[in-house]
Structure formats: structure tokens, C-alpha cells
Amino acid sequence: xxxxxxxxxxxKPPSVEPTRRxxxxxxxxxxxxxxxxxxxxxxxxxxxxxHLGTRGCKAELLADFLARNACDTLFLVGDIIDGWQLKxxxxxxxxxxxxxxxxxxxxxxxxxxxYVPGNHDEFLRDYCGRELAGVEVIREAIxxxxxxxxxxILHGDQFDGVIAYAKWLAxxxxxxxxxxxxxxxxxxxxxxxxxxxxxxxSAFLKQKVKNAVEYISRFETAVARAAEAxxxxxxxxxxxxxAEIRQIGRVLYLNDGDWVESCTALVEDARGNLExxxxxxxxxxxxRAPAGAKAEGExxxxxx
Length: 304
Description:
Layout: E1 30-32, E2 38-47, H1 59-68, E3 69-76, H2 83-88, H3 94-108, E4 112-115, E5 130-132, E6 135-137, E7 141-144, E8 150-153, H4 161-165, H5 167-193, H6 201-208, H7 210-229, E9 234-237, E10 244-248, E11 251-255, E12 264-268, E13 274-279, E14 285-290, E15 301-303
Parallel strand pairs: 2-3, 3-4, 4-6, 8-9, 9-11
Antiparallel strand pairs: 1-2, 2-12, 5-6, 7-8, 10-11, 12-13, 13-14, 14-15
Helix pairs in contact: 1-3
């Protein structure tokens, strides 16, 4: 695994203004879905690395999550649509269409949806500053939590040395990663037949390979260092498919994970508390990890 590099002179972030909330009527903690599904309400939801357009995308779980969780603001933190894969081969399923419909339904209901493009959907960076179907496309954003913390929102690919200096290697890695995900899908079907929970081979390999662990650690440190230089309290990113909440120096580092391996999202409640939700299976349950704890830790079960 290549090392992560952060070069201050190589990346000059644009001036970012805090996101302004639109006024809307107060909403209850649980709100009805048009299909009769009970929804849990959050102040903010952060989702990234869904990779719509690939076989690895857990679109059924993602659509279920979006249908059962309402929010005032939804951040799509990059790699939502996988333009790299779609260029090579077109792949799209009805479940992936359902994900798009759930996002647009939230727009129609008054949810503010902000799209921060990543490297796999970098084609959307040409549209930053515009609205597409009611979705705001922004290169970066500042989000203020209910308890006053200022969070920098970005995808994080600019802190990946492979993406910045050897993009051809990133494409090669993406190909190898797709193979690992395909093997994970086969194992998932077998385990599902045996009544066992979802288990990701690619996530397991990432945890066991020393270089991968070092890469993740260096990435997290580089992102936190950049956030500290920007004078914010924390940073929300994606990119490395590793959900995490931890303090790095003076910065709260938050990674909302992905929807090809872990099926995780970062959520904020009305008091500003931040936690990672792991969506286990359709209409079943998700596990909860409070701020300051790793997403892998066991937590209380929340009815989905």
C-alpha cells in the first residue's frame, strides 16, 4: 500500500463559508415515510463512498437506511456515484435507482442535501456552486453542530499520495479492490444462506495487512493536521472506507465509512452528539458507536 502524503504547497483549499440552514417547521423525532415506514429523525446525516454504479454497492441496505432515517441536512461526502467504473462498464440496478429516489424524496420534503464530490465522482466538481435537482454541489463545506463545533466537510482524496501523484496506480488499486469486493459478495451469499451476519473480506484484509493499517493512520493524521491548520474543531471525511471517530490532537476526526464494506453513516442528534450507525440488514437493526469510540466496538441495538 502506498504511503499517504500531505504537501501544503500542493493543495490550496478554497475559501469555505459555513453552511446556512433553511428555516423549516420543527419536526418530531420520528416522522412518517410515504410507504408507512417509521423514521428516526437526526439533525444531520453524513454518508460517503456508496459507489453507485458498481456491483459492490450495498444499494438495498442504503435505500433502506435512507428510508428509515430522516434529517434536516444530508451530506453526501464523495464517491456517491462511481464514475471510474461506469466509464469502463455500465452497471445499474433498480436498488441503486431506489437510492437516488430516496435522496430526491428528502429534497422534496425540505431536507437540505449537500453533495461534496470525491475522486470517483470528480466529474461533478465542475458543477460546484450549483444546484442539481435541488442538491447543492460544493467542493468543501463548514458544518456547525448543535453544540457549536465547527466541522470541515471534505472527501479526503487530496490527502492520498496515490491519488495526488500516481493516479494510474489508484486505477490499478481500484481494479484489485473490485476483485476483493466480488469475493466478499460470494462469501456474503454463503454466510447469508447459513444464517450468519454480513462479513467483509476486503475490510478484514485491510485490518490485517500492516501497510494498509499504516496507510490509514497516516491518512487520518494528514486530514486532522489540515483541519487544525484551518482552525476548525473537527473534520468529516470518507475515502478510505474506514469508519472512525477519535480525537487526534486538538481535532475531532470523523470518517463516515462506506456502503460497500461496512455500511456505515455518521449522524448528529439535536444536541450535537455524533455517532456512527452501522446498518446491519434490511429492516432489522444497526449498531451504535458513541463519539470517541471506534465504529467496530459493540453498542446498543437501535430498531431500524
